Amino acid sequence: MSTVPPRWVVVDDTDVNIQYSGDGRDWVQNQGSRDDVGNFGPPYKDTLHGTIMNASLSYSFSGTQVQIFGSNNPRNDSGVIDPTWECFVDNVRVPPSDPFQFQENNWGFCGKGQLSDGPHVITVNVTVMKAQTFWFDSLQYVPSPSLALDQAAVLLDSFDPLLQYGPGWGALGGGANMTGQTNSIANIDFVGVSVSWYGFIPTELPHPATTASYAIDGGAPTSFVLRGLPASSATIYNQKFFETPTLTAGHHQLVVTYHGTSQTTPLTLDYLIIQNGTIPSSNTTTPGTSPSGDSHGSGPVKKSNNTAAIVGGIIGGLVLIAIAIAAYLYLRRREKKLNERAPVDEPAPAFVEPFHYTPVRSSVPQLQDTKSSAPVTLSYQGHSPQFSTSTFPTNTHHGSMPSFSNTELQSAIAPSSSSGTSYPSNANTYGNRTTASQSNQGYLSPTTPLSPMSDKARREAEATANVLRSQTSQPASGPSLAEDSSSRVMMHEDSGFRMPPTRERTSVVEVPPMYTPG
């Protein structure tokens, strides 16, 4: 059973419920000036709150996980990092992420998972020593199930079961979905007032720009551009491909269609953000149907029937278990008796092994792997890191995304110098996993036995090789083994059988029978 990705509530830095120190005077709001920093995309809603002094912020929420995002802007003076920050959840310190030397937006500063479901407060304390600005962007938390989300921005992962993908869509690196097939579609039913579609542009896939379109509630499609990448550009993350206009609050359907080809930049989906995002329940009753039962007192009867069925099922299960145990014990006892009655096997008589001659090739071609490149597993970290521990995981990716494709290694045969015979490869490798037939040195002899050569086979090989060497050392005028078709090499070997010693032969004297007078 697959696990449903958590649905996060996204809180922008402009939210009025965020408490900034100094009544906000310690902080300054910024919009747009850092949109082009790094390759992790612009800040959420293009806004930031920054401070160049010791300051703090806090936010109250109800949920089970929380994380803080900002624009990383470090200054390193002889190992002294400026600015620094500390995070606390309910006054308990949460370790921050490790310092990162490059400027990046959408950077995880700290976070806490596995919280008890209920109200919590997260606080960020900032220390600035040399006026290096600390930039806060947004926070995300997994809400309590009972929390009303009609005024919230809800983030849905691309693997959320509410999303339906048509033919041509597939997973991209384990953290996103993509398509490169013309007219492939994806759709989602949602409740809210708008949807924003976020993906990324992978440098390993085709770069030429193309288009796609979206339609709301069966209306006319709206086209949007997938701009691709320059030839030498790194992968760009957290790209908002489109945002729908503001809709009337209620239920809507979004259908997205890709108009490119396999030779143009693909359409990717990392996550959606639904504004005022009340998500339809996955277990809602189908329209036009209702639970069975009579409103006039059928409840108690139904409960009684259910109890009887449960008790009957338990009793039946116990009976089946008892029968199975009895059958098992009976079979074990019967098998034991049969084994006691079975005669003891006598050792088979020993026979003298007959002589078999097997020609051995004087030179065996060797199989050698060509230069290989192991497949690169896409190490993709999505927008919302998962918390396997109580601390926020370290951000690990920067610059170009690793390759998506796996490369199957090829094998080459080194031809024999004497016979020129080649053998088909049986040492194929995939990725960095080598088949059991490949040797540690990367060479494989197709005819190499799996067990050590016996003395008999070794002697045959040595004798045959010796005969072949003696033939090649004879004078040119003499007939060779290859020229005389009637000549062949035959080597006999003592079978090991010995006749019993013969007794000394004696002469036989024949004597006529003795006759008696009649």
Task: Describe the fold and architecture.
This protein has 518 residues and is mainly beta. Among the domains are: 8-147, Jelly Rolls, CATH 2.60.120; 155-275, Galactose-binding domain-like (Jelly Rolls, Sandwich). It has two helices and 29 strands. The chain has helices at residues 298-341, 455-472; strands spanning 8-12, 19-20, 28-31, 47-51, 55-72, 75-77, 80-82, 84-89, 92-94, 104-112, 118-127, 134-143, 153-157, 163-165, 169-172, 176-179, 185-192, 194-201, 210-216, 222-226, 236-243, 250-258, 267-269, 271-275, 366-369, 411-414, 429-430, 433-434, 443-444. The strands form six sheets. Strands 1, 2, 3, 4, 5, 8, 9, 10, 11, 12, 13, 18, 21 and 24 form a 14-stranded antiparallel beta sheet that branches. It has a five-stranded antiparallel beta sheet with strand order 14-17-22-19-20, with no helix packed on it. It is elongated. The N and C termini lie far apart (114 Å). Mean pLDDT is 74; it is low at 282-305, 344-456 and 476-485. Keywords: Membrane, Transmembrane, Transmembrane helix. The chain crosses the membrane at residues 308-331. Residues 280-300, 411-425 have a biased composition (Low complexity). Residues 280-301, 362-518 are annotated as: Disordered.
